[in-house]
Amino acid sequence: MNYRDRIAPRALTAATLALAALLAPVTATAEQAQSVVVSERPMSWTPNVLDGTVYAIAVIGDIAVVGGDFTAVRAAASGTALSRRYVFAFRLGTGEILPDFAPTLDGTVYALSAGADGSVYIGGAFTQVNGEDRRGLAKLDARTGRTDRAFTGAIADGEVHTLVARGDRLYVSGWFSSISGVWRTALARLDAATGAADHGFVPDLRRAGGGLVRVEAMAVSQDGASLLIDGSFTHVDGVDRFNLALLDVSGAEPYVRDWNTYAYRNSTCIWSPSTYLRGVDFSPDGSYFVVVTSGHINEPTKMCDTAARFETDTDGVHDPTWVNHTGANTLLSVAVTGSAVYVGGHQQWLDNTYGHNKNRGPGAVPRPGIGAIDPDTGKALAWNPTKDRGVGVEALVAYPGGLLVGSDTEYMGHEYHARLGGFELP
């Protein structure tokens, strides 16, 4: 996503604010295999979010939970606005906004993940949930919004940017120095039921030259064996890992795999206090993953403003299998389904290796706001529903019925779908 410098907002200059509007925490997607590409026509029944931005979406059975910094929502066929601050839930297929799911929060929700027991984990910049102290992290009933008091995980400082639940484990990332009463820098693994920190999972993330370490995005393979992280780090557990690292988490003692790439090292991409890497997602079978980036610089040899595929089957140093350039327009989110690599941001084009954000280069194809890439060739698929660009698409979540999309704009597929929409499988 587009990262905003939320550490010291009062000290930001106008130039920094302009950059910050292009940068924010990312959400993870659950790897959902789909044999075909979704329809270009948007779903008619998704609710409208009337202000702010949708940063995260999680699907729990027939319910979708939506998080962001909004204050009001409205059903697609209704003229009545409902007060919902930072989070709400609706029923898939009808768009009915759940009347009982109305938890009270005092800050933005940046991350959501479905629990295994009809629950949803929420993460972000809040300090209270339903009148109780719950800094940055809480577990709710996905239908009622009630707080699960058995889950006591919380951060002591900072924010949560990404959550991924796998079985009895919950991975938490963002920028923080302590969680559940133990020291952890930007990344932790908790007991999914209690929120207690896993004392066997203590990754040492560092940044050369100092500065705040952040994990902006992460993904966990569907089998739970691999953890992929990107962020503002240069070393993980004492080995060089420039903004991107792959960890084996299949056993009791996780370790950094001997998998590495120099693709994101020494880049001239603009990256503010965080990394220019924005979103990551594994393929459904875990054999590869895709990274999307910002950077505002277009050079064919650089990885700014690109989507790139990397293989996971062997260790060693890896070059990307393919790279798709937007031409200096940020990509913020990615969802890999096997039939497509969906990417969202505020891009104008894909396949724009030799163009720029003001120029369509040779071979470039228009894909405003949202697009799909062939997983094998790395070239844009014909799928082109179009979307208002704005800051861009912050959340892409594939689920058994199709693809859900969260953003800060109001039109998708030439129809009004304010900040939330989706595409069904044909």
From TrEMBL:
Residues in the signal sequence: 1-30
Keyword Heme: no
Record's keyword terms, sorted: Signal
One Pfam entry name: DUF5122
Transmembrane regions: none
SUPFAM superfamilies in the cross-refs: Quinoprotein alcohol dehydrogenase-like (SSF50998)
The keyword Signal is assigned to this record: yes
Cited InterPro entries: Delta_60_rpt, Quinoprotein_ADH-like_sf
Name of the protein described by the UniProt record: PKD domain containing protein
Organism from which the protein derives: Longispora fulva
Classification lineage: Bacteria, Bacillati, Actinomycetota, Actinomycetes, Micromonosporales
